[in-house]
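ugh ok fine here u go
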Amino acid sequence: RNGGMEITEPQRDDTPLALIGVRACELHGIGVQDRVLMEGRYVDGDYAARRRDAFIVAVNCFEPGGTCFCVSMGTGPKADAGYDLALTEILDGEHRLLLEVGSERGAEIARGLPLRPAMPEDLRAAEAAVAGAAERMGRELDTLDLPGLLARTLEHERWDDVATRCLTCGNCTMVCPTCFCTTVEDTTDLTGTEAERVRTWDTCYSVDHSYIHGGAVRPTGRSRYRQWLTHKFGTWHDQFGTSGCVGCGRCI
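structure:
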């Protein structure tokens, strides 16, 4: 405008969110996203606006899925923190829900509900339900020196075996609760006076994700699968001080 440039940002949607039915593994996933997007050197303003007043109702698991391995990752099946309210369903003849309060906001909601005090038998039944889920995990993972193991086996034939079956479609990263990669797309209008930059979801399985001038750094499905897995289970520890996997099993 008048030989200069004006930059505007869209107004952020800070409408309070309520997340109902959040599992323990998902709570840990939210914790990872918080660490990456809000506690680092650069804060993601859009994420922070949605996260700031989010009200979370967690649900403890009593029946794990066939691909769950949260016990191996220390992330479940019981929610231990990060919620406002937590529910445990009890099915021992009398169907009831045990309610646990995790914040002052949660306590405020609980005070308005028609509740009765939990009896010792209620607590025992809820504990048994969650313990049963831990014993019936569909999968397990040996995490002993997993980052070191992956670093020592970058040329293992297992990567080739998986690459023959992997479509590099990115569905596993789309459902992963800790993946956060994005890209930006620039467009201009026909007059050349206005330009728009939009952030979109991205995945390390796409060829363009590692593209630099001259070509892609990871041109093969083998290299992209290996990058995703070694980052999630290995180098994530170096970057963020924790594993990038919460054992939800969605990628499986």
